[in-house]
Amino acid sequence: MKPERFLTADQQATVVDAVRLAEKRTSGEIRIHIDGECEGNPMERAEEVFGKLGMHRTELRNGILIYLACNTKVFAIIGDKGINDLVPEHFWEDVIEVMGREFREGRFTEGFVQAVLKAGEKLQEYFPYQSDDVNEQPDEISFGEKI
Questions:
Q1: For the chain, which domains are there?
Q2: Angle at CA 53, nearest 5°, toward 11 and 74?
């Protein structure tokens, strides 16, 4: 399946709305990327996508990427250096758990929404929303292996 067709337009809009809502609570930047295939380690691919999307260019280095390869059914969550320097080890485990549970049941939109909202809630403690916050990354979902 082509990554762009994995979620319907309405489902994509629901996920993007969740990103916008979560980012109203935190200065963190949350992005979703959907690939078709992931031949190797999904964490390594997520790191590659993170770099290609320029997510390391946020002022506070507080971006996170939620990555899914829809055809090979693997996913990963990674945070930037600013987050990783502050948060405890295993910080994303409960986000991964809720997302994995929904994904295993075939509820991908719900999995993304719950993961995004949970990530925003967790980031709020370390990176609270500031009144002068600027949206440094697009909220829309990115797609494909050749970004």
A1: 3-126 (3.10.310.50)
A2: 55
Q: Which two tokens stand for residue 44?
A: 């390594």
User: For 1-12, what is each residue's pLDDT tens digit?
Assistant: 999 999 999 999
| Long-range pairs for 91-97: beta carbons < 8 A, 24 or more residues apart | 91/122, 92/119, 94/118, 94/122, 95/119, 95/122
Pairwise CA distance, residues 80 & 101, whole Å: 25
**145: pLDDT strictly greater than 90:** no
Q: What is the pLDDT of residue 141?
A: 98
Q: Residue 67: helix, strand or coil by DSSP? A: strand
| Alpha-carbon span 20 to 128, nearest angstrom | 14
pLDDT of 24: 95
Share of the chain residues as helix, strand and coil, in percent rounded to the nearest 5: 45, 15, 40
